[in-house]
Amino acid sequence: MKLKKATAEEKSPKFLQHKRMKKWVDKSDHNCFMLFARSLYITWGGHENWVWNCFKETGDENVEVAKLSHVCWLDVKGKFSISELSPGIAYEIVYEVKLTNGASGWELPITLKLSLPNGEVRERQVVILEKPRKKWIELNVGNFLTKQGETGEVCFDIIEHGGHWKKGLFIKGAIIRPKMITTQ
Questions:
Q1: Residues sharing a CB contact under 8 Å with residue 174, sequence separation 6 or more, in sequence order
Q2: What is the pLDDT of residue 14?
Q3: What highest taxon heads this organism's lineage (predicted)?
């Protein structure tokens, strides 16, 4: 089956679902997505534990980001229909986050969890205490290969249930894109 090449209009980023998501096509004609914070499930996200701020994404477009005020139970979940992705491609999911100068409570590692439609679950732990402050960074949740005709959802989580209070984390969203190949 021959896939049609994406037009210039299809390649340019498009905001979807009231700026909760952005879609674009990369140079290799593969679908890419950004799920902004409002499209994620953030435990206590509707309470005073999180503050929602506008952030200039591109040009004149503003999107909402979530800033953690204080919480002892960090639980951020996203899910996405795998059928929206290009088949036969190795994808990666990364959370885009930023620590404030006053961030604290990050001594314990956070768990990044990837759940695939076939039931496979992968987890890894990352210590963010020593990550740069006041700069957007990417936390790689994991990689997976899409298959032609595959259905179901890929789920991706950030978890830290250590019971101590944390603060000073911005969550911009999660990026789903073809895995970047690096050569050395």
A1: 34, 35, 40, 78, 93, 94, 95, 96, 141, 156
A2: 60
A3: Eukaryota
Whole-angstrom distance, CA of residue 89 vs CA of residue 181: 12
pLDDT band at 16 (very low <50, low <70, confident <90, very high): low
Q: Report pLDDT digits (tens) over 30-66.
A: 999 999 999 999 987 777 889 988 876 555 567 889 9
Instruction: Tell me which amino acid residue 105 is.
Output: G
The whole-angstrom separation of Cα 95 and Cα 152 is 21
Give residues with Cβ within 8 angstroms of 145, minimum separation 6: 88, 89, 90, 91
> Rounded to 5 degrees, what angle do the CA atoms 43, 127, 48 make?
25
- State the Cα torsion 134-178-143-58 to the nearest 10°: 20
41, 77 in Cβ contact below 8 A?
yes
Name the more confident of 60 and 128: 128
Which residues face 158 on adjacent strands? 76, 112
Question: Tell me: the pLDDT tens digits for 130-149?
Answer: 899 999 999 999 999 999 99
Q: ∠ CA(29), CA(171), CA(43), 5° rounding?
A: 115
Tell me the one-letter amino acid at 88: G
What residues does 78 pair with on adjacent strands?
Answer: 156
